[in-house]
Every structure is written in C-alpha cells, then in structure tokens.
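Appendix B. Extra example for self-study. Work through it before the problem class; the solution is given directly after the inputs so you can check yourself.
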Amino acid sequence: MDENGSASGERMLAALRPADLAGTPASWQQRKSVRTRLKLVEAAIDCLVESGYPGLTTQAVAERAGSSRGAMHHHFPTRLDLVAAVIDHVFYKRMRLYLGDYLKDLAGLDPAKVVAVATAAHWRSVQTREYAAYLELAVASRTETELEQMFVPAARRYEEVWLSEMTGTFPFWEEQWEAMLRANDFVIAAHMGMLIQRTVLGETRTQTIGEIIEQFAASLYRT
Amino acid sequence: MDENGSASGERMLAALRPADLAGTPASWQQRKSVRTRLKLVEAAIDCLVESGYPGLTTQAVAERAGSSRGAMHHHFPTRLDLVAAVIDHVFYKRMRLYLGDYLKDLAGLDPAKVVAVATAAHWRSVQTREYAAYLELAVASRTETELEQMFVPAARRYEEVWLSEMTGTFPFWEEQWEAMLRANDFVIAAHMGMLIQRTVLGETRTQTIGEIIEQFAASLYRT
DNA sequence: GCAAAAATCGACAATGTTGCCGGTTTACTG
DNA sequence: CAGTAAACCGGCAACATTGTCGATTTTTGC
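Solution. Structure tokens for the complete assembly:
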C-alpha cells in the first residue's frame, strides 16, 4: 500500500476514500486539520469498541483524543457529524484491510482454493477493532433512526464496491455471479453471528463452526 | 401449553422458569406483585426492541408500563435488577416459543427432515421481539461488564437446557452428539448474522441465505 | 507586520437519568 | 377493628451529556 492508502487491486474503492485518509494536503493548516479529525475519529472508534454506541459521547471522544470539546465542535458541530465520519472511516478501513490481506495470499493460487482463502481472510478481518465498531454501528442502527439513515446507504455503497473488487480479482466470477453472491452473503452473515456467539460458545466450538463455514462456502462456489 | 407455562416435551426448561411466569400464587398481594413485575419486564423488553439497550431507562419503562417510578423501585431497586429479570424472562420465553413451534411440526415426521423443520422453526423464533431483545442484550454485554456478568452465565445455563431438550425430542441424537452440536451452533450463528445483515441485504437475498442454511444444516446432521 | 481566517479552548444552560427517601394507600393478621 | 406489612406514589439531589457561545491562540494572505 502506498502513502495515499491504495493497495494493488483496488479499483473502485479509492473513489470512496474519506477525506481524512486522502494523503497529505498542501497547507500546514489543512494538514493539522486532517490530523485532528483523524485523531478524533480514531478515538471515537476506540469508544465504540470499548463502550459501544452509547459510550460514543463527545466528552469521552475529546478526552481520549487529547483534544478539547471546542476543537471537536469546530470539526464536527454535532455528535451525528462525528458518527457520519466514523461510519465512512470504518467501512473504508476495514475493506482495505480485508482486500490487502486477501490479495496477499492470492498470488499463484489454485483457483479451487480461492474461496477458502477469501473466507479465512474475511474471518481475520472480522476479528479487528474496525469490525467491532462496525458491529456496534450495525446493531445500533436498528433502533436509532438517524443512524440508520446514514449507515444503511453507506453499507449498500460499500457493498457494491466490495462485490466489484471481488469479481475483479477473479473475472470468471462474473459468469458465476449468483453462486459468488450466495457464498459471499452466506459467509458475511455466518461470521457476524459467530463473532457475537463467540463469548458463549467458547473458542473450540467457534473454531469448529469457522471450519464448517469455510468448507461450505467453497462447496457453494463449485455448485 | 398449560396455565403454568409448560409445553409438552419440556423437561429441564421448567426448572429455569422465572418467578414472574410461575402461575398464580395464593394471596391477592402476591398476584398483584407478580402482575406488576411482569408488566414492568414486558415494558422493558419493548424499550429494548424499540430503542436498544441504552433506551432501557427507568423512566421509559415505568411510563410504558403505566406504572410509577416508585413502584418500579419497590420491585427492582436498581436498573440492573430489572435487567436481570429481563434476561431470564427473554431467555425463557423465547425458548418456550421455539420449542412449542418446533414440537408442533414434529409429530410423525420423516426423521430425515427433522433438522430442516428445526431450522425453519428457529428462523421463525429469530424474527420475534424476544429475539430482538436478546440480540440487544448480547451485543450490549460485549461492552457493558456488569451486563456481561449476568448475561453470559444465563446464556450458558439456558443453552445446556436447550441442547438437552433438543436431544430429548430425538434420542438417537445422543449417538450423533457432535454432528448435532455442530449443526445447532452453525444454525444459531448464521441466523443471528442473517438478522443483522437483513436491513442491508434486502428480503430476497436474506431468504436465499436462509434456504442455504436450512439445506446445509440438514447435510451437517447426515454426516 | 497585520488583519482575516482557521483552529482551539473552557464554560454555560438545558435536558435526561439514576438512586434514594418520605409519605400514602391497600391488603393481610389476630 | 386496630396494627403491621406490602405495594405504590411523586419529588429531590447528584451526575452526565449535548449544543452553544465568547474568547484565545495559531496560521495564512497581503
């Protein structure tokens, strides 16, 4: 990945890159502004991971970012403005993480094993703090309407790019679009459930389900 | 189901029945007490479904239950006392719902189709408000430690009963315990993920995944 | 340099939530 | 028919959170 944050193989994703991650602007002020925004958004993600969506308070974020509430208000007038930035940031960062991980293992691979590799990479991406934040947002958006209005469109936007990038890595998936979509949807849903049940299931059973999913996703593609 | 809230086929479950659902006590006072407690807990579940865990405030619950904050404090001194009651209530009610639904379709069924029937019944149980409340609690327990300390043990407790009841309906599952456990864990995780992704996926793709899960769960058992 | 603009800071009032408490009504007991 | 106990009521202080504002510091354009 280069300084602008684009890995090889990312075609559409760059178009959705949040301004916060758009490299180094010209002026010193703009650079400082971006740095502070980024600091605040990252702090917000920390809050999300540690205390959930209700723990994402302006106070906690400012304190954690080592910034003042005034500075925060300058960049994000209301709490929802910050949340909007967090949504974009989380989607983008998690997707880049996954794609980077996935593409790394892809060089000269037996095509029959592509789905298994993708599934394994996806499970790794699920165990990141970005995904934990994503989960909090996804669940909170079920009950907070203002959040839903930002989250669902963003999810759809990024999902389109996601699928586009995936088919891009293996063009023959276009011919098997339905099978690929099924396997993709299935793995995403199953892994999310796995993550939530993990606490109750324990590590052993979680791993067992993971293997099942991996095998089954591969079989779905061959269909 | 009889008045005491036990359906045919429930062996262990009755032992976990919360006091709120334990039928009709002797004295008028106790009956009134139970009625009020139940009203409060149900109102709390409504809050959970509509506004999530942070929306489960003492004010909102009391107001929705048509009760006063004072009465509430009499039955549940602190908010966490109420939450504890809600946890038990949700687990118990949802499990009864599922078992009732599942056992209803079981009479004289081709054994090969049992898993498919169980999976379908489980998906129906996932679409209830009790499950929505359960989901909110499960996710909130990831970040709220006091909640986790009540929720995780309760989940383990009820899961044991769950598995016990399931094997009870088909004793030959004891011989295939591993396969049954795998299929069970898998379906539970996958359905939870499905529910959360539903908003983004839309109805068509959600249904497709549902069918995949159903078929695959059946194949898991035959293994 | 100097004024304008950007970034930052701390404090304020308004609101909402929690736990607690004194007082009241209602039912049980002897 | 008291006297006790359970159930219920409304209000209070303490605290947290949000949005807003005026003032201050830092950077930029001229």
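Self-check: Residues 27-29, 32, 57-59, 70, 73, 77-79 of chain B lie near DNA strand C (CB under 10 Å from a C1'). If your reasoning did not lead you there, revisit section 3.
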